[in-house]
Amino acid sequence: MIKVAVCGALGKMGKEVVAAVEADCETELAASIDVNGGMSLRATNGSAAIHKTIEEAHKAVEIDVLVDFTQPKSIFENAKYCLNNGIKIVIGTTGLSDSEVAELKKLSEEKDTGCFIAPNFTTGALLMMKFAKEAAKYFDNAEIIELHHNRKKDAPSGTAIKTAQLMGAENADFAAGNCAEEELLKGSRGGVAESNIHIHSVRMPGYMASQEVLFGAAGQILSIRHDSVDRKCYMPGVLMAVKHVFKNNDFVYGLENIM
User: DSSP string covering 141-200, please?
Assistant: First the structure.
């Protein structure tokens, strides 16, 4: 059995991961970790008391793989602690900078300890990105709209950033033919990513996670959209990543690399 610790266990995603780990025949919940620890999850999912820190859990129990769904401000230090202490890690928290990802990759290789980072764990979102990459070969204009709940702290989403990177590899400029622009309200045109792809972030109650990629050309619009409506849709991908990183000591960025 793979001994899995879940960091951010009291969060909405964390609770789903805990339940998925407990339900899978190849994994067992070694520890639940949350900054709001000390209370018991027994009333909600049958788990034992929660540790407040990864270090506290590491001293108490054996951990093969840690799954992190916490906050952008804590994920980098969490990942460094795991890799420096021989704990393999699956990262679902977004907000890591390119330099932080590069440092984690280097540390993973130096410590020969597996590290798996995924901007998105849903198969539908991965297909959306794959289709957007393919469409990017045939359109010179494109923008991305991503929509999430209003408790998401980072913007744009990791999925939007990854999508723009994939599209940018196929086309150097997605603002072809646009006139010179002047924003009357700063930020009206969104953030600008690779190849002049504008990304617009919406934060609003009622959404969970959605993304639409719009491609335009003379006389036509192509829209590629994915909507997540239940957090359970992430769990097969999370478990796939846990099982991969348990068996391997490689660094992986993106679930599509093991599908």
Answer: EEEEEEEE-TT--SSS-HHHHHHHHHHHTT-S-SBTTPPP---SSTTTT-EE-GGG-EEE
Say which CATH number the domain at 180 has. 3.30.360.10
Task: Measure the CA angle with vertex 53, ends 48 and 56; round to 5°.
Answer: 75
User: What's the domain range around 103?
Assistant: 2-117+231-257
Alpha helices in the chain (DSSP H): 12-23, 42-45, 54-60, 72-84, 98-111, 123-135, 158-168, 235-247
What digits encode the pLDDT tens for the residues 42-62? 444 444 568 999 999 999 999
Could you tell me the maximum CA-CA distance found in the chain, to the nearest angstrom? Answer: 63
Residues 113 and 12 in one domain: yes
Task: Report the DSSP pairing between strands 65-68 and 88-91.
Answer: parallel
Rounded CA-CA distance 96/208 in Å is 20
Q: Is the separation of the CB atoms in 227 and 207 below 8 Å?
A: no
Locus of tokens 């196929």: 170
The single-letter code of the amino acid at 236 is P
The torsion angles phi and psi of 37, rounded to 5 degrees, stand at -70, 180
Same domain? For 38 and 89 the reply is: yes
pTM assigned to the model:
0.78
Active centre residues (catalytic): 148, 152
For residue 166, pLDDT beyond 60: yes
Q: Answer for the pair 221, 215: CB distance below 8 angstroms, yes or no.
A: yes
